[in-house]
Amino acid sequence: MKKFLSILLCATLLISTLLLFGCGDKKNNSEETSAPAAEEATLKLGLGVYTAVSATNATDDKNGNGQATTTAAAVLVDNDGKIVKAFVDCADSKVAYTNEGKAVANESFKTKYESGNDYNMKAYGGAAKEWYEQADAFCALIVGKTATEVKALVAENNKGTEDVINAGCTILINEFAKAVDKAIANAVESNATAKDTIKLGVSTNQTTADATEDKAGYNQVETTFFAAAVNAEGKVVAAASDCVQVKFTFDNKGASTFDATKAVSSKKEAGDNYGMKAYGGAAKEWYEQVSAFDAACVGKTVTEIKALMGADNKGVADIQSAGCTILVDGFVKAASKIG
Fold first, then answer.
1. pLDDT number for residue 125
2. CB-based contacts of 173: which residues, under 8 Å, 6+ apart?
3. Which of 15, 139, 157, 195 is the most buried (most CB within 10 A)?
């Protein structure tokens, strides 16, 4: 009997051991063969700009003015063309010239978004929200929409539909919609995802010359835009730049000689017609050079992007070797605004 019990006990221990190790092997196999977590879908980054211009003559009592209002939109869109994230801003650059043909220099330029509460839509316009708040409301509303659906948000009076107004955006939105439409059309594949933040930096530079009897004067504004998707570490994941240059001309009596009826294209939109190869002897056109700059910004922080500019306002050696030989100070100044 004792011998039987001993055999039974050994058999029980053997079975328990096999079951224990069998379960352990099964658990390990399960861990080894489990499917990896799905990668987050990448998005397309697009930048679009739309410019409206006007000009007036100087009089004895009042300076003449040239005004360039450029609305810019930066978007992240999915493969279905639906907006995942968006940001809009407006560079409303107004310059002046006297009735003696003298150009007037501006102290500084700020976008409407940068002006913040100082834009004073509440104080002087009686609005419920400031401009930047209304722009944010518009951007929140267009998430999930296609270009066609964004266009449908514009009512006959160029304000938004009831949905837009109820969302808190009561300003004119027709130029928002035009910029967004261009941004979606310009969107290209990138490594950006929905976790990244969409940002837009804007920088405006002014150059002037007084008029003479023989030569027109000018007051020129050049506004550079830098759109970027930025990750949690503050590094640029995707970038897109563009520039709008408007040269307001006038004679020595302050009469405008600028053609405000002509549509204004950005430098990137001009494409091969910008003529850097044909007239400037450059190896690459402007849009190709700016694409090289944008590519160099990927993986960098704002501080590192600033370091891409040399003492002569051109790019450092690596930038020039990459194919960007134009001045990059405007790009760098715009990029510095996203920090």
1. 83
2. 138, 153, 154, 158, 159, 160, 164
3. 139
Retrieve residue 226's tokens: 């830098």
Confidence of residue 325 (pLDDT cuts 50, 70, 90): very high
Contact 81, 184 (CB under 8 A): yes
Single-letter amino acid code for the residue at 88: V
- Helix (H) or strand (E) run with residue 123 in it: helix 121-125
What does the alpha-carbon distance between residue 155 and residue 44 come to, in Å, rounded to a whole number?
28
CB 231 within 8 A of CB 195: yes
Kindly state the helix (H) or strand (E) to which residue 178 belongs, with its residue range.
helix 174-186
Taking the domains of the chain in order of start, what are their residue ranges?
43-266
d(CA 69, CA 105): 18
> What residues pair up with 107 in beta bridges, in sequence order?
none
Instruction: Read off the pLDDT of each residue in 245-250 and give the average, rounded to a whole number.
Output: 99
Distance CA 134, CA 141 (A): 11
Which pLDDT does position 36 carry in this prediction? 53
Q: What pLDDT, on a 0 to 100 scale, did the predictor assign at position 111? A: 98
Q: What is the pTM of this model?
A: 0.88
